[in-house]
Amino acid sequence: MSRTLSLFGSRLRPCPYIPGREERNVAAELGGPEAKEIYDAAVRAGFRRSHDIIYRPACTGCEACVPVRIRVDDFIARRSLARNARRNADLTVNELSPPSAGTDLFDLFRRYQAGRHAGGGMDGMGLREFESLMTISPVETFAAEFRDAEGALVAVILADHVQDGLSAVYSFFDPDQERESLGTYMVLWLIERARRAGLPYVYLGYWIARSQKMAYKARFRPLEALHPANGWISFDPIRSENNE
User: Fold this and answer.
1) Does pLDDT of 98 surpass 50?
2) CA-closest candidate to residue 69, choices 239, 209, 187, 240
3) In the chain, what are the helix, strand and coil shares in percent, each to the nearest 5?
4) Which is deepest, 62, 70, 109, 162, by most CB within 10 Å?
5) Do residues 222 and 185 touch, judged by C-beta distance below 8 A?
6) Rounded Cα–Cα distance for residues 96 and 113 (Å)
């Protein structure tokens, strides 16, 4: 890889996950003929993607954001996860590659933001901004739409292909659905999607012990976490949380 990647730091802003904290990210613009190679390496280094920007937390005195990934070959859906898979098995899935952003997706996104993340910043996003979120990507990206028996759109996940797996970018779902957690089901589907493709990992972004928004990631075991000195290692979120 011959290109030099220029990183820049964001301004301090309130942390969306831990009350009373401030966050800062380091980020870089992703593009050009080496975008895929750079992105593959960046994901393995704990970076995430939004639009054509890759970023990761760089908060002074805080290491709460732990990059995690699921070992696909060793994953077995037990107990509540198995029940979740059965209860949502009637959903039909349509993959879009590259993704699109129709009005039905935008309507679902707005209802999700209003129901689950009101005041979080993304709830004010307009259609054009939403289209950018879904469609601007310099790497191989796809969306999966989940529809019920009547054909109604109930959930969407956006994900990237990387060299050694799939990287979840963003997901949203109908906040009024009575069926068991659609967010959890989309991760289960992504694991099976990676398994069918022979890919060893599903990258889930950051697990944060003190954030309820991120607590669901602890359910998908075995997990690996990116350690600053030792690279990707086996990780037990429950034990780590008890040591907080």
Assistant:
1) yes
2) 187
3) 30, 30, 40
4) 70
5) no
6) 22
d(CA 236, CA 218): 8
Radius of gyration of the chain (CA): 18
pLDDT confidence bin for 223, thresholds 50/70/90: very high
Q: For residue 229, which phi and psi values (nearest 5 degrees)?
A: -105, -30
Which residue do the tokens 């908060």 mark? 59
Per-residue pLDDT at 180? 74
134, 100 Cβ separation under 8 angstroms: yes
- Per DSSP bridges, beta strands 201-207 and 22-23 are unpaired
Q: Which residues contact 3 (CB under 8 A, 6 or more apart)?
A: 32, 34, 38
β-pair partners for 94? 145
Contacts of 66 (CB under 8 A, 6+ apart): 206, 207, 208, 209, 225, 226, 235, 240
Distance CA 160, CA 138 (A): 10
User: Once rounded to an integer, what is the mean pLDDT over residues 44-52?
Assistant: 96
Alpha helices, DSSP H only, in the chain?
35-44, 80-87, 103-116, 127-135, 182-196, 237-242
With beta carbons less than 8 A apart as the criterion, state whether 194 and 201 touch: yes
pLDDT band per the 50, 70, 90 thresholds, residue 4:
low
Longest dimension (CA), the chain: 51
- CB of 102 closer than 8 Å to CB of 130: no
Residue given tokens 């910043």 in the structure block: 121
Instruction: Please state, in angstroms and rounded to a whole number, the distance separating the CA atoms of residues 124 and 131.
Output: 14
